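Record type: monomer structure entry
Structure origin: computed from sequence
Chain ID: A
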Amino acid sequence: MTETHADFLPASGAIVVVICSSQNVLSYDPKAYERQTRFAQDVMKRVAETKSLAGVPVVVLLVSNGTARQTHEYGLKDFPTLVTLNDYSTAALTNAVRVLFEK
C-alpha cells in the first residue's frame, strides 16, 4: 500500500478493496491474485493499527471465475466481509453495489 492510499483511509466511510483474479487477468499475470491479496492484507493491517479507522467497515470484492475461484475465496476467509462476483461487467458491479449499499 502506498502512502497515498494510507492518507485517504481516515476520510473513508467504508473501505472496499477489489481483487480481480478472473481467468483472463491470471492468464496475463499469474501472480495478480497474490499481489492484490497482499495489498488487501496491508489495508487490514493499517486499519487494525489506526484508532480512527476502528469503526470503518472493510469489504473485499473478489472478481473470480474458473477453477481457482474456490481457492481464492478460501484464501480471503480472514477478511470480515467478502463479496464474490463472476466477472467485472457493469451489471455484475451494479449488483454488488446494490448488495453492499442497498441501492
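Annotation 1: Residues 41 and 79 are 9 Å apart (CA to CA).
Annotation 2: The chain has one domain: 3-88.
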